[in-house]
Design goal:
The complex is a heterodimer. Chain A is an alpha/beta fold. Helix content of chain A is 53%, strand content 14%. Chain A has ten helices and six strands. Chain A has a six-stranded parallel β-sheet, sandwiched between helices. By secondary structure, chain B is α+β, with helices and mostly antiparallel strands. A five-stranded antiparallel β-sheet of chain B has the order 3-2-1-5-4. Chain B folds into three domains: 10-258, Rhopdopsin 7-helix transmembrane proteins (Up-down Bundle); 276-387, no CATH class; 448-569, 2-Layer Sandwich (Heat Shock Protein 90), CATH 3.30.565.10. The chains are: A alpha/beta, B alpha+beta. The A-B interface holds A 53-54, 59-61, 83-85, 87-89, 108, 111-112, 137-138, 140-144 and B 429, 432-433, 436-437, 440, 443-444, 448-450, 452-455, 458, 461-462, 465-471.
Chain lengths: 214, 572
């Protein structure tokens, strides 16, 4: 797996590189700002980009803007974004552009190496990963007509994991349920929230995120 | 109609009064000359002293048309003339004279209490003056109904000849009269004792003379009756003379300055427009109006309030205060107020006149006061800003020290333990995770990431995501970037308003709108909660911050009527 790492803080950047290389990835480029990232992606056509959202030159959401361009111009390159603080709008903007091979995680997640590398692989494999905290924020938002109140606590857990981009099988494993039981919960959730059935996992992320962002 | 100094109405009226009273006095003199009673020179003292009253009264009336002292003194003169008819030989006139013969004493009491304003102030004064009139009008009745005139013949009013009853009546009257006199002396003495120096200077001549006069009458009677019974005529003459001295003492007091001269108010304009040696407005007003405690207050805007000459905010004296207030206006605009001692300057109209004459000069001084007030406000708000910044630094330091540092020290101890096993490693890892979360939240509280990365609207949306109640958003896409200071202030307005809603409002609905009218930033947060919020605590700090950006923060929060917080900041 060929990777470009974009992060303006050198220590963090080198840490990420080390982590990915130990995991067997080949880091083909290191970028310290958004234009640099775009240049290196154009030059190396990597399988995966791991980028910080806040980067020079504007030190605003430069990383996100770059990621959106990369997803549009190089669909074969997966993008995993990291940020200091979760923000719902980053997640929604990202998934609105496509739920294939994208991820958005809190930077802190890197500390849990195993779980972080698992997320890296899911994104590289074309999956969609959203940070649990961003999903929790979405779930907790106050709504006028809160259909979520009609779901059981177990179903809410399932919904969160769906929003994080997990497959039925992964959800079943996590919650120690049978895949069939998860399927039933998912169907019930779809009916309760009035969502159109989506077979593919990444499509249903979009549906769920759209619902939660209403 | 108001009588104005030198007005077309007053002067002829006063001339009329003067002529009428002179004629009446002339008639009396003629009748006395023919009458049977006593030595003529003594009898003539009545009309002579009466005319002394009339003269001083008319002088005062002319100078101070709206001060009642003048009229009161003239009335006193009239009563003296009428009382003098007692000594003529015509029964009807004797009867009239007998009825009013003691009234001059009550008028003297009235004059003394009413000085210098012409109005009675205080319950004690009003009661004493009322009692005085009661004694001379009602308690006089037995004398002419059932008795004889003091030394004179039986009157036409007599309904029964009960000399015994008349004697008791006279006795009651003189006791009550003496009580009124002594009470008057006590009140005058107390008033003099408690007066401020400026006022005491005005009151002293008349009050001192008054005390002597009112004590002389009863004491003189007692002394003469007990030890010099044959000196009745001398006593009467002495008492008359002492009473006649009251208006003279009044004139002395007036000349001393308690009695401002109207003409000088008109000179105020010239005085204040002088090129050289122009006195300060307040000093000029004090001099002209004769009140050294007089003060000027100024009305300044934004927010509307009263300030003194140094720009320090002050309260206007209330209606129950000893101080009176005359507002100063230019057109409809309230610009200031003259605060004065109503016991010293009774004539509101005079102060109002001075206010009109000096309005422009006062407006001039008001500008200075406003500038000083603005500077004072700025100083206070700057001090508060610095204080708030320091408090914030202390809070951050405390959070870092109590939370993160302690946590890290504990983790370091854990890591330093020999033979680290799996469990220790897991504890270390989770402890570090918690430390990271804590640090992230701390940083988020200082400068929210969303604000830096995405700007005000995104950060506001981020805040609404964390609210327990739905927020109706009305966010106008903001053209161009906001200055960092404005954006940060705007963010903290939203966050403080939201946190107040959560903590205090018990609101069910909340609306946030952010717009950019005319290039400025406008943030409005409206809830339907219990209201009663005020510009204190966090909001105060925000107001200072907004103020420093030349903006304005307003809080409308009637009890029970929800809260509306509006911030408008120019972005120029």
């Amino acid at each position: 797996m060929r990777v470009v790492v974009a992060e303006d803080q050198a220590l963090m950047r080198e840490g990420l590189v080390l982590l990915l290389e130990q995991d067997g990835a080949e880091v083909v480029g290191r970028a310290a700002d958004a234009p640099d990232l775009l240049r290196k992606v154009g030059a190396h056509r990597p399988d995966l980009v791991v980028a910080d959202i806040r980067m020079p030159p504007r030190n605003a959401d430069d990383g996100l803007q770059a990621a959106l361009r990369i997803r549009a111009e190089h669909p074969e390159t997966a993008v995993l974004l990291l940020s200091q603080h979760v923000q719902r709008s980053y997640a929604t903007e990202l998934v609105e552009q496509g739920t294939v091979a994208v991820g958005y995680l809190l930077k802190d997640r890197v500390a849990d190496v195993a779980s972080f590398l698992a997320d890296v692989h899911r994104v590289a494999a074309g999956g969609c990963v959203l940070d649990p905290e961003v999903v929790a924020t979405m779930m907790a938002r106050p709504r006028r007509d809160d259909l979520l109140e009609r779901l059981t606590p177990r179903q809410l857990e399932v919904l969160s994991l769906m929003a994080e981009g997990r497959s039925n099988r992964a959800i079943a494993e996590r919650l120690t349920l049978t895949t069939k039981a998860v399927g039933r919960h998912v169907t019930h959730i779809y009916e309760t929230l009035g969502l159109g059935l989506a077979e593919e996992d990444h499509r249903r992320v979009l549906a769920v995120v759209r619902y939660l962002s209403r | 109609m108001r009588l104005r100094p030198g007005g077309a109405v007053l002067a002829p009226a006063l001339v009329g009064i003067a002529v009428a009273l002179l004629a009446l006095a002339g008639l009396e003199v003629a009748l006395l000359a023919e009458g049977p009673a006593g030595p003529l020179w003594a009898l003539l003292l009545f009309p002579a002293y009466a005319l002394l009253y009339v003269g001083t009264g008319l002088l005062a009336w002319t100078r101070r048309p709206s001060n009642r002292m003048g009229a009161l003194i003239v009335a006193g003169g009239f009563v003296w003339i009428v009382a003098g008819f007692l000594n003529t030989g015509i029964p009807a006139l004797i009867a009239v004279g007998l009825i009013v013969s003691t009234v001059p004493l009550a008028i003297v009491v009235h004059l003394l209490h009413a000085f210098p304003s012409g109005r009675l102030r205080g319950r004690a004064s009003r009661l004493t003056v009322f009692a005085g009139y009661f004694v001379v009008l009602v308690l006089q009745a037995p004398v002419y109904l059932v008795g004889q005139g003091a030394e004179g013949p039986t009157t036409v009013l007599q309904i029964a000849d009960r000399h015994d009853l008349a004697h008791i009546g006279e006795w009651v009257q003189s006791i009550a009269g003496a009580a009124v006199m002594v009470a008057t002396a006590a009140i005058l003495f107390d008033r003099l004792r408690r007066a401020e120096p400026a006022r005491r200077r005005v009151l002293a001549p008349l009050d001192a003379y008054g005390i002597l006069a009112v004590l002389f009458v009863p004491i003189g009677s007692i002394v003469v009756e007990n030890w010099f019974p044959e000196a009745g005529l001398e006593l009467a003459i002495a008492q008359l003379t002492v009473m006649a001295g009251v208006p003279v003492a009044f004139v002395a007091a007036a000349l001393r300055g308690g009695f401002a001269r109207t003409e000088e108010v008109h000179e105020l304009g010239a005085l204040l427009n002088a090129e050289e040696g122009r006195p300060a407005l307040r000093a000029a007003l004090r001099q002209v109006l004769g009140d050294d405690s007089l003060d000027l207050l100024f009305r300044v805007a934004a927010p509307p309030r009263w300030v003194d000459r140094d720009g320090v905010e002050v309260e206007l004296p209330g209606p129950s205060s000893e101080r009176s207030v005359s507002e100063v206006r230019i057109g409809d605009r309230l610009i200031g107020a003259i605060v004065y001692d109503a016991t010293l300057i009774a004539d509101d109209e005079l102060v109002a006149e001075a206010a009109r004459v000096t309005a422009l000069a006062l407006d001039n001084e008001r500008l200075t006061a406003e500038l000083l007030a603005g500077r004072e406000r700025l100083r206070v708000s700057r001090a508060r800003l610095v204080e708030a910044t320091d408090a914030e630094r202390r809070r951050i330091a405390r959070d870092l020290h109590d939370g993160l540092q302690t946590r890290l020290v504990l983790l370091a101890m854990l890591a330093g333990r020999p033979a680290a096993d799996e469990e220790t490693a897991a504890a270390l890892s989770s402890g570090l995770q918690e430390a990271i979360v804590e640090l992230r939240e701390l940083v988020q509280g200082v400068v929210p990431a969303a604000l830096t990365e995405r700007g005000l609207c995104a950060a506001a949306v981020d805040l609404t995501d964390r609210m327990p109640i739905p927020v109706e958003l009305d966010l106008e896409p903001l053209p161009g970037e906001l200055p960092v200071g404005v954006e940060t202030a705007g963010y903290f307005v939203v966050s403080e308003a939201f946190s107040n809603v959560v903590k205090h409002s018990r609101a069910g609905e909340l609306r946030l709108s952010i717009s950019r009218p005319n290039g400025s930033l406008r943030i409005e947060v409206v809830d339907d909660g219990v209201g009663g919020a005020h510009l204190g605590g966090g909001l105060r700090g925000l107001a200072d911050r907004i103020d420093a950006l030349s903006g304005r923060l307003t809080v409308e929060s009637p009890p029970g009527g929800g809260t509306r917080i509006l911030a408008e900041v120019p972005c120029g």
